[in-house]
Amino acid sequence: MERRKLIVVSNRGPVSFARDDNGERIVRRGGGGLATALRGFVAHHDVTWIASAMSDEDRVVAGERGSEAMVERTRTGAPYRVRLLAHEPVAYDRYYNVVANGTLWFLQHYLWGLAVEPELGRAFRVAWTEGYESVNRAFADAAVAELDREPGAAVCFHDYHLYLAPAFVREQRPAARLMQFIHIPWAQADYWRVLPEDIRRAVHEGVCANDVVGFHTERWRRNFLQSCGAFGGCQTETVVNPIGIDIDEFEQLKDSPAVLAEEERIVGSRPELLVVRVDRTDPSKNIVRGFRAFGLLLERHPELQHRVGMLALLDPSRQNLAEYREYLAAIEHEARAVNERFGQGEWRPVDLQIADNFPQAIAAYKQFDVLFVNPIFDGMNLVAKEAPLVNGRDGVVVLSENAGAHEELGDWTLTVNPFDIEGQAEALHRALTMPAAERRRRAEALSGYVREHDIAAWADAQLADLDRPASTILSP
After folding, report:
1. Does 345 fall in a domain?
2. What's the pLDDT band for 475 if we cut at 50, 70, 90?
3. Is 429 exposed, middle or buried (0-12, 13-18, 19+ CB in 10 A)?
4. Most exposed of 124, 137, 156, 263 (fewest Cβ within 10 Å)?
5. Whole-number Å distance between alpha carbons of 164 and 302
6. Are 314 and 431 members of one domain?
7. Contacts of 61 (CB under 8 A, 6+ apart)
8. CA 182 – CA 159 distance, rounded (Å)
9. Taking the CB of residue 205, how many other CB atoms lie within 10 A of it?
């Protein structure tokens, strides 16, 4: 596809800055699945990326640069511009922790027990107006400034952190070409009624200010259209484009020294049969129920004891939020319970490791016999695509029906209801005892699909949809 001039806007950027032991500034790869996925734009187009200054050193860099973007390069040497926004700390905390992650994330993943939560009082109102609104306006102002520098560029907003920014840009530049991709589930209309009327209306009107809005699945798109109709009838063009992964990156990483070293450690201690899960310690990932299902597997099938183990590699997530700290404690408690009940001698059924260790995750991808992906709800879940790509054991994927990836990959996985612990235990048993020929058929189909539908294809599809006449795009 022809190279385009793009302004990518997301909360988390592609790079982060820190200081090494000698006090020298170093550049690190930006964390998070979204930043990883969006590198597909950078590799193929002329990109200016606007993001929040996340680390202390990010804020120093942002202060040094002011409104000027810096030039960074991809691992292949392609240049792109990065503009970091150093938000006022209290406003950013309200925007990020109270509204985006503390409210919108929980709403869109159906995580609340509505009999007791949430309680949206005065503090939430302040966080909305003096946090979420103000930070979204800062993002919009930066996008407008970049549009003035490059009037022909398209602006690509990403995710739930930026629901208001498109409308703020539209107010200032009515002719701008705007698109937004929502990477998490879109809840059904009734669940959005948790929010006060003016706030849920602002969310929907903000998103509808885009020319095109993209989702990973038809299911999330359909929910969005339903809620738009329920809350004022705002309309925009909508598309379904499931995101892919960077095939070349994973092909290189799987044989890198860091991954090979981690793989050697896994091979040295692995049981005969290895169940792997790689997640953040997020309540939406359903880790506690997953451990209970694994424990039930061992109870129902004692012949698997000492033969099978679960390696759970969990990235500690959002520990500044009480709900996440409590969930991490529940994860650790449940892992101990399974190990205390079934462990004997040196054998521990669950090997729980809580760390941000990407090479270790890729090494585990290569070694799984069963990949366990059982989120309550998930916009996509890239683990379900990454792991089969590099796996060398014809591993079987057990996949929640509520993961966005299921819409694409379900024919070659074992489907589970994330709330049905018995059903998950049965699926794990079926996966562990599946005939070799069937395992290979499924594994080859999964890998082939992931290779064909990669991140470059997703990026091209996004821009093709932006260029298509409105009459040819899915609409309400």
Report:
1. yes
2. very low
3. middle
4. 137
5. 54
6. yes
7. 17, 25, 53, 70, 84
8. 4
9. 18
What the block records as the tokens of 127 is: 């966080």
Q: The tokens of 121 are what? A: 């009082």
* pTM (predicted TM-score): 0.93
% of the chain exceeding 70 in pLDDT: 95
Query: Which segments of 247-358 are extended strands (E)?
Result: 273-280, 308-315, 350-354
Helix (H, G, I), strand (E, B) or coil at 30: coil
Which residue shows structure tokens 């860091």? 258
Residue 314 forms part of a structural domain: yes
CATH of the domain at 172: 3.40.50.2000
The answer on 76 and 33 residing in a single domain is yes
Which residue matches tokens 């690509």? 156
The SS3 of residue 117 is coil
Largest CA distance in the chain: 69
| Domain-located, residue 114 | no
Burial 114-143 (b: 16+ CB within 10 A, else e): eeeebeeeeebeebbeebbbbbbebbbbbb
Q: Hey, how many other C-beta atoms are within 10 angstroms of the C-beta on 471? A: 7
pLDDT tens digit string along 342-383? 999 888 999 999 998 999 999 999 999 999 999 999 999 999
CA distances (Å), origin 17, targets 57, 59, 317, 373, 421: 5, 9, 20, 32, 42
- The amino acid at residue 241 is N
| Domain shared by 382 and 425, yes or no | yes
Q: What share of the chain is helix, strand, coil (3-state, %, to 5)?
A: 50, 20, 30
